[in-house]
Amino acid sequence: MKRIGIILAIIGAVLLVAFFALRTFTKSASPEAVAQFDQNGFTLKVDYCRPARKGRPIFGGLVPYGEVWRTGANEATVIHLGQDVILAGQSLKAGDYSLWTIPSPQGWTVIINGETGQWGTNYDQKQDVMRVQVNTRPHTPPMEQFLISFVPASNGADMLLTWDQTEAIVPIRQP
């Protein structure tokens, strides 16, 4: 009986070390980042990971057109809304959501999903809160690492999703 306990403890320790080694490896290739916006009490925050281009074709290649993308790497990207907002023309309640996209050459579909905390490949469409269309524009020079940023706009901010030669613009406004 004591032998079984020792074996289980060793297996548990090995699994724990393997988990932390894998987490460290994936985070080194796609480091964690935070994008924040706070202006006059209007607060937005996005927790995500930044994959690198590494000479690969991104949209239409590594990230296929017409398919749901985790909008970053590793865990699902999470957007924190400090108050109710109007996102690309649609009302959205304050709270935490996962952020997904469907890139296409003509523009992107932004998906706000009610589930958070999942790995970035575990998308459940049944948890979608909204889907909205947003515009894209060319970005030069090409962005090596995926970047989420905010720029002030009238009555809110634009969230920019930038990678390679593409930038998607997601308008987020106060109601």
How would you briefly describe this protein structure?
With 175 residues, this protein is an alpha+beta fold.
Explain what this protein looks like in three dimensions.
This protein is of the alpha+beta class. Helix content is 16%, strand content 50%. The mean pLDDT is 91. A 9-stranded antiparallel β-sheet has the order 1-2-3-6-7-8-9-4-5, with no helix packed on it. It has one helix at 2-29, and strands spanning 32-39, 42-49, 77-81, 85-87, 90-92, 95-104, 107-113, 128-153, 156-173.
Quickly list its features:
single chain; 175 residues; alpha+beta; nine-stranded antiparallel beta sheet; 1 helix; globular
End-to-end CA span: 64 Å
Characterize the overall form. globular
Tally of individual helices? 1
- Overall mean pLDDT stands at 91
Work out the strand percent. over 45%
Main β-sheet: number of strands, strand sense, barrel status? 9 strands, antiparallel
Instruction: Give, in order, the helices and strands.
Output: HEEEEEEEEE
Structural class: alpha+beta
Number of strands: 9
Assign a percent range to the helix content. Answer: 10-25%
| Radius of gyration of CA atoms, rounded to a whole number | 19 Å
Residue runs with pLDDT of under 50 for 5 or more positions: none
Biggest sheet strand order reads 1-2-3-6-7-8-9-4-5
